[in-house]
Each structure stands twice: as structure tokens, then as C-alpha cells.
């Protein structure tokens, strides 16, 4: 038995390898693709209304207390709920420290081309930039 077989053996020791659990990011990408137009619309609204130049969208599968729900997974039959927020709220709530605000903004990609998504999974959370498809 090689190392891979040993690491993937079932606890029952049946010798059958376990199926690898699909990363939640696979379903996230599918949902972001599906949600892209709606997210872009909200992003533009946040900027045009002067709320923020830096919208942030939170993708999660549980409940979070930041931002406002814009796309509910239960209502839409998807895997991820999306909430809209701003860099200002992230700083206010201490998710981005005041000292890290400027470096974050320097790395922030053009909101016309990318959605900034704060992805929350049980193992932790991180920012990703997901490109809008060109029309």
C-alpha cells in the first residue's frame, strides 16, 4: 500500500479510498458566477450613492453580523449568502485594523472589474477578488 492509499483509507479499513470532499470554493465560484450581475449592480449603487468607493461583499454559509444581505441562499436555492458592506464598516468593526487600511486600499482592485469578496468558511476567512465577466 502506498502513502496515498494509507492516507485515504476509510476508518473501517475496507481498503476503499474515501471520496475527496469537494472544496466549498468550487460551489462559491459557481454562485459568484450566478450572482455577478446583481453584485456588480449593488457595487455601482454603493459607489454612485457615495456610500463608499470600496464595496466589499461577504460570502458565507452561516450567519454573520456585518453588512446587509443582498442575496439569500435559502431564497435563491444556492450554497452561499452574499452580504454587502464597505471598507469603512470593516475598519469600524475591527476586521481591517486602522493601520492596515491604507495597505488594503492600495491592494484593492478596481471595483468596476472585480468584486472584492470576504469569504468566511469554518476554517477562517480571507479576501478574494473575483473578476466580472466582460460583456
Description of the molecule:
The chain is an alpha+beta fold and 135 residues long. It has one domain. It is 36% helix and 24% strand. It is built from five helices and five strands. A five-stranded mixed β-sheet has the order 2-3-1-4-5. A hairpin with a 2-residue loop joins strand 4 and strand 5. The protein is globular. The N terminus is likely disordered.
Q: Using DSSP, what is the number of strands?
A: 5
Number of helices: 5
Low-confidence stretches: 1-19
- Topology as H/E string? HHEEHEHHEE
Task: Strand order, main sheet: write it out.
Answer: 2-3-1-4-5
End-to-end Cα distance: 51 Å
Largest sheet: 5 strands, mixed
Could you tell me the radius of gyration in angstroms?
18 Å
Based on Cα principal axes, name the global outline.
globular
* Strand-residue proportion: 15-25%
Secondary-structure content class: alpha+beta
Condensed summary:
This protein has 135 residues and is of the alpha+beta class. It has helices spanning 3-8, 24-48, 73-76, 87-92, 101-107; strands at residues 55-60, 68-71, 81-86, 114-121, 124-131.
Question: What is the secondary structure topology, with strand pairs?
Answer:
Blueprint (H helix, E strand, L loop, with lengths): L2 H6 L15 H25 L6 E6 L7 E4 L1 H4 L4 E6 H6 L8 H7 L6 E8 L2 E8 L4
Features:
globular, 135 residues, alpha+beta
Amino acid at each position: 500500500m502506498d502513502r496515498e492509499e494509507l492516507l485515504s483509507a476509510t476508518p473501517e479499513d475496507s481498503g476503499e479510498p474515501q471520496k475527496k470532499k469537494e472544496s466549498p470554493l468550487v460551489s462559491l465560484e459557481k454562485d459568484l458566477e450566478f450572482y455577478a450581475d446583481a453584485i456588480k449592480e449593488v457595487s455601482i449603487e454603493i459607489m454612485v450613492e457615495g456610500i463608499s468607493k470600496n464595496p466589499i461583499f461577504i460570502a458565507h454559509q452561516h450567519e454573520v453580523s456585518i453588512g446587509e444581505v443582498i442575496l439569500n441562499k435559502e431564497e435563491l436555492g444556492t450554497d452561499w449568502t452574499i452580504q454587502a458592506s464597505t471598507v469603512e464598516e470593516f475598519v469600524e468593526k475591527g476586521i481591517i485594523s486602522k493601520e492596515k487600511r491604507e495597505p488594503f486600499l492600495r491592494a484593492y482592485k478596481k471595483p468596476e472589474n472585480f468584486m472584492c469578496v470576504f469569504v468566511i468558511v469554518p476554517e477562517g476567512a480571507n479576501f478574494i477578488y473575483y473578476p466580472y465577466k466582460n460583456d
